[in-house]
Specification:
The protein is 40% helix and 22% strand. By secondary structure, it is α/β, with parallel strands linked by helices. It has one domain: Alpha/Beta hydrolase fold, catalytic domain (Rossmann fold, 3-Layer(aba) Sandwich), CATH 3.40.50.
């Protein structure tokens, strides 16, 4: 992509440096007057989806949006320790970066989130008047099930490496419940983060959200999962601006049965990108 305007920088949040990249529109004539803050997914899912998120950020900048990508504290190039990061610190980081982009541009902000990042965007949007809309890919509605899948993936990986059963989900859960961190595919999951995720009632949290929302369910069949259908019904009762679409595409995050498969699917996803841009345009033109 030509003429990209990408500025990396550090921004201090609660005495810790947060790494971010501002993707500006390629020309003033294309500036749409909207900022988009990316809310990254969790742990290894963020690492696997990094390439696709960068590609999508650049596409949005080409379309005239100010885009801000950042690493939560304890993640990527930001300061802090992953084991100390929690749902609370992640949401605080989202607020800080949305405020930074709003102050820099004076524009309303759309939060874009993938997987757990989409769920965190829900939490942030309910508390932030600068958030104009939500664009969400495959939000996590059942955090307990989500964390159990991560623990299962760690058990499979550890036992595969050792060639025998040396790990179990019960043991990992026991360590977390005892206040210890546990390794999840190279990421030290902290006990406080685990507790906050298990206590998270997504269906209750979204009741505070009043902005326009577009949700994309991504998979190899045309069926929208039950939990997203239930979320759609709840949101419909609260706001007129809610859409849920199914995109038939190759998932590009972790499959608990084959954590390495997604590395073969970094490229493509044109339909997902195009439909997401279309939805974003609709939400930002509806005022």
């Amino acid at each position: 992509m030509n003429d990209l305007k990408e500025v990396p920088f550090f921004y201090e949040v609660e005495n810790t440096k947060v790494f971010a990249v501002h993707h500006a529109p390629i020309s003033p004539e294309k500036d749409r007057g909207v900022g988009v803050v990316f809310c990254a997914p969790f742990a290894e899912e963020a690492a696997i989806a990094q390439r696709i998120c960068v590609d999508f950020a650049r596409i949005l900048a080409q379309q005239g949006y100010h885009v801000l990508r950042f690493d939560y504290r304890g993640c990527g190039d930001s300061g802090g320790e992953f084991s100390e990061a929690t749902v609370t610190t992640h949401v605080t980081d989202i607020h800080a970066m949305a405020n930074w982009l709003h102050q820099q541009t004076s524009y309303p902000v759309c939060l874009f989130g993938l997987r757990l990042g989409a769920t965190l965007a829900f939490l942030a949007a309910g508390e932030d008047p600068t958030v104009h809309s939500l664009l969400l890919w495959e939000p996590i509605v059942r955090p307990t099930q989500y964390m159990n899948n991560f623990l299962r993936t760690q058990v499979l990986a550890r036992n595969m490496i050792n060639g025998e059963v040396v790990e179990s989900r019960d043991r990992l859960r026991g360590q977390l419940e005892a206040g210890q961190s546990v390794d999840i595919l190279g990421f030290p999951l902290g006990a406080q983060c685990y507790r906050e995720l298990l206590a998270l009632d997504v269906m209750q949290c979204v009741k505070t959200v009043r902005c326009a929302i577009s949700i994309f369910s991504i998979g190899k069949s045309g069926n929208i999962p039950k939990e997203l259908r239930e979320l759609h019904e709840l949101l419909q009762s609260m706001t007129n601006e809610i859409a849920v679409e199914r995109v038939i595409d190759q998932p590009f995050w972790i499959d608990p049965n084959d954590p390495w498969r997604e590395l073969r699917f970094w490229h493509g996803h044109e339909s997902l990108f195009e439909r997401s841009v279309h939805r974003l345009e609709g939400m930002t033109q509806s005022d």
